[in-house]
Design brief:
By secondary structure, the protein is of the alpha+beta class. The protein folds into four domains: 2-178, Immunoglobulin-like, CATH 2.60.40; 205-397, no CATH class; 415-530, Beta-Lactamase; 540-697, Histidine kinase-like ATPase, C-terminal domain (Heat Shock Protein 90, 2-Layer Sandwich). The protein contains 24 helices and 23 strands. The strands form five sheets. Strands 1, 3, 4, 6, 8, 9 and 11 form a seven-stranded mixed sheet that branches. β22 (681-685) and β23 (690-696) form a beta hairpin.
Length: 697
């Protein structure tokens, strides 16, 4: 009870100072959570920096102290003294922290009425960081107020820059909780900067694009600027270097502006779009370089700070106005650029309004500069990627317009891609040997084969074979037809039986092969074969055909004369007979009626002149009236074909012997070799211009 009365007596008789000072004391409580002390502070400005702690107390008694109007007092020379009256009217001791929320401040000294004439704490960037009473980026001072106590705290502030006094009171628990949250949020913020730095640096190395390198340098310089502003650089990077701690901020401002100008110069294509802006950018960059050098030692701190603030302001105006200009000029990527800087400037505006008390001090406003700059850097990264993509598109368009060959290739590739995606047919790309290079998804839908299983394999590996000889037939047939492809005859059609991987069944398919303009790849379109159901039901017929010397007749006749076999033989056997019959018909036309010998045909095929020669030969009077006669007879147990031409014949005995010895691997005699595989009986008569082929059913 006595202790309470003594406290009341002391408080009442010291009340004249309270009334005179026109501010109330700070009543500390166990629940203080970042109490803003601006309204509890009184200040005195010592222009000559000569006032001692004892003299400050006298000046207060002479009513020289005034209420602190705001946290930011602007630029002043000399020393500011702050006075804070602290009262603990509770029955418990209270431990709390007095935080000076301004990391880049020269000197803060704390004096207490209960601790003599010497400063109890001192902090700021003119003292080694490790001498601070609290290991924290901001000057923070642990305080203890006994139960029912009263004391006066004076703070001596000295700074060459702006005179700020953002003081806050926290209970111990709240202070450490605040520090933990800050460390977490700052870790996320700087983590984003580090990731973006290395990401763009990696893109610079991998793409050899200097724009990514310049942006990486900008992120690095801006990151060091923020580390210095937040006090983390002094805490972790140079805690003992007090000289550099005082100048680092001044150095990184023009350095970040220099990198930012170079990025904007490249990104907005200033060199190409405006000679006037180019001069402004380059002149401003030279100023930034000189400023970065001068602020290290030569210029006084305050002059250097004002110069750096001017550079920062001009930088924002120049870069932002350049972005607006690009936006009005229709630069697509300028939208990201302007949006990024708008968000950053909004963050700057919010933190400025919060610091002068116009808007409340809440989470979003306190961290608005970090939020704004983080979003800005991310958007600039997107803008850079978008800009690079636009530039590459422009380059591609120019290259395309200058290179007709490249345009044709791109159109062919685009057409192939569209067909691959949209067509229900199987779309292949082959090399010259008909090895699969790619295929669309219909390959799996139609045959159960995935593209990776087919790549690199010959087309014959995808075909159905029922008997051992059929595989050899397929190879002969494909090679025979493949040599017909040339620039004059860029497409051919084949009928093949593909194998369904899972069902083990044949799929009769018409395969169109087309040579691309590069003559290096072949496009294949595989379409299911259509069947005349009526003809496939015929059980007995006899027909005689007489046709002219067009090769298409061989294709149509072989198709027509094998359709009735479908219900008697396997699909694969029918395909083999059809292809062999077609080869015999082609031989009758080419080597018989048109009198083109094997050597001459081979020579013309190698030079790519065969089909033009063929067309001329078909028009010549000596040959144009010749016909091929085909006699066909279908019975229950066999099918019979007799093919006769009006040519001079050939040495069929020698050719039959060669095919029996394996001559089917060359050009000559391949059709006969295929026919011997397909039919049970193959017999030439006369001078070799008549052949009989019989297949038992």
């Amino acid at each position: 009870m006595l202790k309470k009365l003594l406290f009341l007596y002391t408080f009442l008789f010291s009340g004249f100072s309270v009334i005179r000072a026109e501010v109330s004391p700070l009543f500390v409580t166990p629940t203080m959570k970042g109490v803003d002390l601006t309204s509890f502070l009184q200040y005195y400005h010592d222009e000559n920096s000569e006032t001692s702690y004892a003299e400050a107390r006298v000046l207060f008694s002479e009513n020289k102290f005034k209420p602190l109007p705001r946290k930011n007092m602007g630029f002043y020379s000399g020393v500011f003294w702050l006075r804070l009256e602290i009262v603990n009217n509770t029955s418990r001791n209270i431990r709390w922290f007095l935080e000076f929320d301004y990391p880049v401040f020269d000197s803060v000294q704390v004096f207490s009425s209960d601790s003599g004439e010497a400063a109890i704490y001192q902090s700021g960037d003119i003292y080694p960081f490790n001498d601070r009473p609290t290991n924290y980026r901001n000057p923070a001072f642990p305080m203890t107020d006994m139960a029912f106590s009263r004391k006066i705290v004076y703070l001596r502030l000295l700074n060459d820059g702006s005179m700020n006094a953002p003081l806050y009171a926290h209970t111990t628990g709240h202070f450490f909780n605040k520090v933990s949250i800050e460390q977490f949020l700052l870790g996320i913020y700087y983590g984003i900067l580090v990731v973006m730095f290395f990401y763009n640096l990696f893109l610079s190395v991998s793409t050899h694009d200097k724009n990514y390198l310049v942006y990486s340098v900008f992120i690095l310089c801006y990151g060091f600027f923020q580390l210095t502003m937040n006090g983390l650089a002094f805490q972790y990077l140079w805690p003992e270097n007090t000289v550099w701690a005082g100048r680092a901020l001044l150095f990184f401002i023009p350095l970040a502006a220099l990198a930012g100008l170079e990025f904007a110069y490249r990104f907005l294509q200033i060199k190409r779009t405006s000679a006037f802006l180019k001069k402004i950018y380059r002149s401003f960059q030279v100023l930034c370089i000189f400023t970065a050098v001068l602020v290290l030692e030569i210029l006084p701190y305050r002059v250097a700070l004002i110069l750096c603030m001017g550079i920062a302001l001009i930088f924002v105006v120049v870069v932002y106005s350049s972005g607006i200009r690009g936006l009005f000029r229709g630069q697509k990527s300028a939208r990201f650029f302007v949006l990024a800087w708008s968000i950053f400037l909004l963050g700057v505006a919010l933190i400025t309004l919060q610091s002068v008390g116009i808007i409340p001090d809440v989470f979003f406003t306190r961290w608005s500069i970090q939020i704004g700059s983080g979003i800005e850097l991310a958007l600039l990264s997107f803008a850079l990627a978008d800009r690079i993509n636009d530039l590459r598109s422009e380059v591609r368009e120019k290259e395309t317009s200058l290179a007709d060959a490249r345009l044709q290739i791109e159109q062919s590739e685009q057409l192939t891609t569209e067909i691959l995606k949209a067509s229900p047919d199987i779309i292949f790309t082959f090399d010259k040997d008909l090895k699969v290079l790619s295929a669309n998804g219909s390959l799996y839908k139609a045959l159960g084969v995935r593209m990776k299983e087919a790549i690199g394999k010959g087309i014959e590996t995808l075909l159905y074979t029922e008997h051992p000889g059929e595989e050899a037939f397929n190879k002969l047939y494909i090679r025979e037809r493949l040599r017909e492809l040339s620039e004059l005859n860029p497409s051919i059609e084949l009928t093949l039986n593909f194998l369904h991987k899972f069902l083990g069944e044949p799929r009769e398919t018409n395969l169109l092969l087309r040579l691309t303009s590069t003559n290096e790849t072949i496009i294949g379109i595989a379409t299911p074969a259509t069947v005349d159901q009526l003809l496939s039901s015929v059980v007995r017929e006899s027909i005689v055909f007489s046709v002219n010397n067009f090769l298409k007749n061989a294709e149509m006749l072989s198709e027509r004369l094998t359709l009735p076999l479908r219900h008697r033989l396997s699909l694969n056997e029918v395909t083999i007979i059809k292809n062999a019959l077609k080869e015999l018909l082609i031989n009758a036309i080419e080597h018989g009626n048109l009198a083109i010998d094997f050597a001459h045909k081979s020579s013309l095929l190698q030079t790519g002149e065969y089909f033009s020669f063929l067309h001329e030969r078909q028009k010549q009077a000596e040959y144009k009236n010749r016909h091929v006669k085909v006699e066909y007879m279908l019975r229950s147990d066999f099918v019979f074909y007799r093919i006769s031409d009006e040519g001079n014949g050939f040495d069929f005995t020698n050719m039959l012997q060669q095919t029996e010895q394996g001559a089917g691997t060359g050009f000559h005699g391949r059709g006969i070799a295929m026919a011997k595989i397909a039919f049970d009986k193959l017999e030439y008569s006369g001078n070799g211009n008549t052949v009989i082929a019989v297949k038992k059913l």
